[in-house]
Amino acid sequence: MSSQANDTPGPSADRQERGGAASLAAAPRDDREDPGLDRLAVMRHPTAAKKTQIVVVGGGAGGLELARRLGARYGRKAHDIILVDRSRTHIWKPLLHEVAAGALDANLDEVSYPSHGYRWGYRFFYGQLEAINRTARTITIAPLLDEDGSELIGRHLIRYDYLVLAIGSVSNDFGTPGVRENCILLDDQAAADRFRNRLLNHCLRVARATSIDPDADAYVRIGIVGGGATGVELAAELYNAASGLRHRGLEVFDDKRLKVVLIEAGPRILPALPDRLAAAAAAELEALGVRVLAGTRVTEVLPDAIVASDEHIPCDLMVWAAGVRGAAVLDGIGGLETSRSCQLIVRPTLQTSRDDRIFALGDCCHCLLPGSERPVPPRAQSAHQMAATVAENLRRLMQGRPLVDYVYKDHGSLVSLSRYSTVGSLMGNLVGGRMAVEGRLARFVYLSLYRMHLLAIHGWIKGTALIVIGHVNRIVRPRLKLH
Ligand SMILES: Cc1cc2nc3c(=O)[nH]c(=O)nc-3n(C[C@H](O)[C@H](O)[C@H](O)COP(=O)(O)OP(=O)(O)OC[C@H]3O[C@@H](n4cnc5c(N)ncnc54)[C@H](O)[C@@H]3O)c2cc1C
Asked: How far is the CA of 139 from the centre of ligand 1 (A)?
């Protein structure tokens, strides 16, 4: 791409007419913008005045890959690529259940955004998106507070020429009373760490009680709501962790003291998988000791119990993994259009429906492709594919060329039952259709998903090195993270 094309972003974007977008000039202001906000607080690179500024908000499965692609493609000469995230480090979200159960030490797998940005040619800003002003083309970043609540950086603005929203999703409690107060929602690493600490503390309590009285009525009772991949994987991972505890400090802990109940409102667990595989997964979980309750709707969560179909299920720890929705901050943000579940509505080009310069990808977007009855599912593979389409469309938009439509390629779903089993179905070119897989092949493909993510965010050389290091770590590091 010529630098001339890079320097002339505006007109081509304004000319862009796909999907009948509203005029940028007519964009409503975001009411949440603080009128007293200091204009001087607009974050600019000292030499960035003439640079085309592309801002990616959210460095997750899709956003981090996109920031790397953009940084690697454009560098810092005529462009300023900025990644904003409310966390300082990235951990791939599909690993969170392993972090929660202690099977994975997130410190070994997390990626530091500032270092990654330095290597790949983008700048990282630590902060949380609060508002968008489409007329001024700025985003507002919420005040950054220290642990004690004192302000580190005040509310400030970041200018953009192009904006990509990739802030993922949050757990959907469907308005069920008591969920927010009493359940852990596996939305981020902090929640996974909180769950692990409470789990270990409770195991310690039970070990202590049974060391005093071997017949004590002491159990670690865990309720998981949602029989999708997250709930199923977490349930299996908990048994893996419990079986290892007695060799790692809790000598008196007996894994029979773990009682997990998995509750699903639908007629069976793992609705994304074929009947046979879902039944195999349910049988495997029951063999481990999990009580699988399908067709059971949770009506309330109390501090010490889940209320489901008039049954009180006593629990010491409860996890809600029953679906996702867009984050509350997206509700009406910048006058952009959102779906009922608060996701940004995008056109097939992944531009938001009302603004050609603002793209959305991954879990935070609602993408209904032509000829499809359902929106693209919120998965890591969709976020990965969308990152590639947005990178291409940003280039085309800046060059004034027609954009391409996103095509969702479903490569299937795989569910890991920890070291016990892996089941799933593979689709597409890989197997020439849809194929149910189990065992070693399924495990291999499941692990490949994370390896592909490592290659996508680190490139071939460092990505391959990290995959090798990961293998070594599996041998030399402790099997459980007990702190
Ligand atoms: C336990 C678990 C297991 C899963 N397993 C699988 C699987 O096996 N296969 C699969 O395909 N998918 C799986 N998923 C789903 C998958 O993780 C998501 O679909 C995927 O991560 C979405 O990518 P994303 O880039 O849209 O968002 P995320 O990866 O969620 O990234 C969002 C980023 O935005 C940041 N952010 C959020 N809000 C703000 C804000 N206001 N301001 C600034 N930054 C913000 C977050 O810190 C985060 O870094 C799993 C999910 C979970 C929870």
From this structure: 21
Residue 81 CB burial class (10 angstroms; 0-12, 13-18, ≥19): buried
* SS3 assignment, position 460: helix
Residue closest to 176 by CA, chosen among 295, 363, 314, 323 = 323
Predicted TM-score of the model (pTM) = 0.85
Q: How far is CA 454 from CA 1, 68, 115, 215, 323, in A?
A: 27, 12, 15, 48, 26
**Residue (of 94, 147, 109, 59) closest to 378 by Cα position:** 94
Per DSSP, the three-state class of 351 is: strand
| Cα gap 257→289, rounded to integer Å | 10
Q: What is the largest CA-CA distance in the chain?
A: 78
Strand pairing partners for 90? 111
- SS3 of residue 165 by DSSP: strand
CB 184 within 8 A of CB 76: no
pLDDT digits over 228-248, tens only? 988 998 998 898 888 777 666
**Residue ranges lining ligand 1, Cβ < 6 Å:** 57-63, 84-87, 90, 93-94, 96-97, 128-129, 166-168, 186, 229-230, 327, 329, 362-364, 378-381, 383
d(CA 174, CA 364): 17
- 3-state class of 29 per DSSP? coil
- CA distance linking residue 68 with residue 64, whole number of Å: 6
Query: 83: which strand partners?
Result: 56, 124
Spacing, Cα 426 to ligand 1 middle (Å): 22
Distance 78 CA to ligand 1 centre (A): 30
Residues 288-324: pLDDT tens digits? 899 999 999 999 999 999 999 879 999 999 999 998 9
